[in-house]
Amino acid sequence: MTKPTILTGDRTTGPLHIGHYAGSLHNRLRFQDSHEQFLLLADSQALTDNAHDPDKVRRSVIEVTLDYLAVGIDPAKTTICLQSHLPALAELSMLYLNFVTVARLERNPTIKDEIRARGFGRDIPAGFLCYPAAQAADITAFKATIVPVGEDQAPLIEQTNEIVRRINATAGRPILPEAQAVIPQSGRLPGVDGKAKMSKSGGNAIALSASPDAISAAVRAMFTDPNHLRVEDPGHVQGNVVFTYLDAFDEDRAGLESLKAQYRRGGLGDGRIKRRLEGILQALIAPIRERRAQLAEDPAYVVDVIRRGTEKARNRTEATKREVVQGLGLFML
Ligand code: TRP
């Protein structure tokens, strides 16, 4: 039996953080034995809102790959490939843009949020507005049926499936499979300041390569319950970032539940919950940081991983493009 195919990826805009770990890396690690998995270094998509800084997009290709390898993505099992070097993805994107309307792109909730967050106003880069069609190309070029992503990506998978249905209807046969998003139950990890989204640009992230001091400082500054002034006071667990992170990373579930109960009753200080979280994060990140530092000493190896993965992805994506061109009834050479 052939393994089901996974395609997922990250924009190359900077090193990954623990929000990525909880959101999608963890699932990708879990899937690499049971599935045929491709990870896309989405540098073309990164350019859609970083055209002013292509240097960052280029440098981040290596940073993101180092993060993948450091957390345990094994290039013998998972194919890591570079979006801008897979021409079939761009070609499929152009075809798909004819199967989606501008109004539908503007209605995509993720795109709406991101346009607001980036303050584009009326100056939305065309590539940005259209990236859902490009992401549909990414997913379908591999004929992926499973896409492990953070919850913000769900509307993009939904839009992918709409395009798939239109293409299949036009072709009169199911050339492309629909894809399913796999989203962690814990939901999105907020920033250390309590803001809804952890992001490097927002300055509220803990990188997977963070130093021990950076981890301590981030946990110390972490938002808790502003009304929990004295240890004896009852405190709120809901909306308390320290508990949200403990929910995502603490494996001692029973211990955590009794701490929550004690915090709610009163008698548990913020210092204690922060020390518990800090210990967990230091233990999670230390081996990742060490492995990352070792890998960073051999950039030629890292480049080789990307080159080999991209070669492997090229044939497969090219084959799908030809099927789509043919399926749509265009002229074939
Ligand atoms: N949009 C994703 C992000 O913001 C990156 C990405 C590009 C992606 N292509 C993809 C994710 C295909 C899943 C599948 O990080």
Task: Give an overview in words.
This protein has 333 residues and is mostly helical. It has 2 domains: 5-189 and 299-327, Rossmann fold (3-Layer(aba) Sandwich), CATH 3.40.50.620; 212-293, Tyrosyl-Transfer RNA Synthetase (Orthogonal Bundle), CATH 1.10.240. 55% of the residues lie in helices and 8% in strands. The chain contains 14 helices and 5 strands. The chain has helices spanning 18-31, 43-47, 54-71, 87-96, 102-107, 109-118, 126-129, 131-141, 154-171, 212-220, 241-249, 253-265, 270-296, 299-327; strands spanning 5-11, 36-42, 78-82, 146-148, 180-182. It has a 3-stranded parallel β-sheet. Strand 4, helix 9 (154-171) and strand 5 form a beta-alpha-beta unit. Helix 3 (54-71) crosses helix 13 (270-296). The radius of gyration is 21 Å and the shape is globular. The model has no long low-confidence stretch (mean pLDDT 95). The structure holds tryptophan.
